[in-house]
Amino acid sequence: ASAEDYYARASVAPILDRIALPAWIVESENDPMVPAWTLQSALARVSPTTEVTWTPRGGHVGMPADLDLGRPGPRGLHSQLLAWITSTLPS
Predict the structure, then answer these.
(1) 3-state secondary structure of 9
(2) Which end of the chain is flanked by fewer CB atoms within 10 Å, N or C?
(3) Is the pLDDT of residue 27 over 90?
């Protein structure tokens, strides 16, 4: 019916505190499509199994190739994400 209706029904924000599996949310402070201020209150209430990382650059149009999210291995979103996934697997 409207943008507000869509986001009320489709947004994951209301259930972020109930995520049971390990999750990693990577957001950019200067995302050109989703301003950081629209996410900050929801991301402050994530479940204990959810990690949130804010980056100074990047967003919906792409992440920098040299992105360092604090994980071992090569820089870049895909390499860092793979390192995170590997770290969540049972030993």
Answers:
(1) helix
(2) C
(3) yes
Tally of CB atoms within 10 A around 2: 7
- The three-point CA angle 66-63-19 to 5° equals 115
Phi, psi (degrees; rounded to nearest 5) at 17: -80, -5
pLDDT tens column, 4-20: 899 888 989 999 999 99
Cα gap 22→40, rounded to integer Å: 20
The two tokens of residue 31 are 């995302």
Residues whose CB is less than 8 angstroms from the CB of residue 82 and which lie 6 or more positions away in sequence, other chains included: 73
Q: How many Å separate Cα 28 from the centre of its chain? A: 8
Condensed to tens digits (0 to 9), the pLDDT of residues 42-83 reads 999 999 999 999 999 998 889 999 999 999 889 999 999 999
